[in-house]
Design a protein that fits this description.
The complex is a heterodimer of chains A (about 210) and B (about 190). Chain A is mainly alpha-helical and about 210 residues long. Chain A is built from ten helices and no strands. Chain A has helices at about 20-45, 50-55, 60-65, 70-95, 100-115, 120-130, 130-140, 145-160, 165-185, 190-210. Chain B has two domains: about 1-35, Arc Repressor Mutant, subunit A (Orthogonal Bundle), CATH 1.10.10; about 40-185, Orthogonal Bundle (Tetracycline Repressor, domain 2). The chains are: A mainly alpha (about 210), B mainly alpha (about 190).
Amino acid sequence: MNHFTYGGLTASEPAERPSQRALAKQRTREKIVGAAKALFAEHGYEGATIRDIAKAAGMSTGAVFASFTDKADLFTDIAETEQAELHAAMRAAGEDKAGREAILAMLKAAAKRHLASLALFQAIMSALWTPFLAEKTRRRLDRRPAAALIIAGVEQEIGDGSGGCVRFIAEMIWDGYLATLRRAALDGLTPELVNARIRDQTNTILAGVRRG
Amino acid sequence: MLDAARQLFEDVGYEAATIRDIARRAGVSVGSVFTGFSSKAHVLGEVIRGRREELYADLERVAPHLRGSTADRVRSLFAVHYAFEFRRLKLFLAYISVAFEWREARESTDLPVLGTNPRLVGMIRDCLAEGVARGDVSSLLDLDQAVDLLLGAYVWNYRLAAGDGADSERLVSRFDHQIGVLFEGFRPAR
């Protein structure tokens, strides 16, 4: 079960006991988010309506709007949480490693998460291309932080003589990773095959930098 | 009807355009749109298919005359792509957004699945295979995977056009650089 953090309020935070009201509010949000995740994954951002989400969560649309401004707000909240959890998992996987090893460990951790909820990932990716949502979302979601995590590994691997090239290469590796995930969704690749492809193409890119 | 839809998607965007708007602009009834198409995505799919035909016909004319290294040939093929899609940028970005719903795209035949067109994939694959024969691409390279990698880089660069307002020149120059790295990596090991 995923653990959600809303506005700094977490279930395990001991500092001050949240009031009954705050707890009830949080439970409502969790219920909405749970229903919304399933519906966004099944129907995509466009296809899932607030009415369906409210129905699945067992409440009125008014109650949903009391917790979230609109569908974009709800969706962005989910995407933010997914992203934060993804980055934590990637960071933990790369922690005790360096260079290529760290990059591959981080991508493997990312693939494990993404393959477990491909449909939701696909809905998020699709929505990021939607102009009207992207305007609102861009302020809340940095689109490239995963590539930023990879930068340190790239720097260790190719040295800092390459200047501004490090970010560029990290983004290439991340874009290649996304292309592989998409292929996994299209062709139903096994996790082993996904990891092998990610390893091969990351090696290709790093070899290209060294030779070029 | 497809012309009306294409113009409308370009003017107001895909999400904002309704079947009713398409019918009005084409001067036909809503019912007759639904006679020809099952959904708005189906209309978009047909618009995109029509444009694909134009693009691939252009590319197939260019392909036999490509010269230089394999990297340069692939650069030329994709430069044609960027120039073509930038003429109707909003339309293409809408397509990427909808096409990323790959699960649904696969279940229905309404929308061409992005990056899997056999003509496009075949053209790039042939170019790589010629590179293997010429000796500047490793015979150990998995060509299908290499095509995915190239197409992935090509498509993802459009996020700079969607978010940062980058023009086609910036995308082409970024992609040229990416091709440089990838083809160094594709070369046979010494």
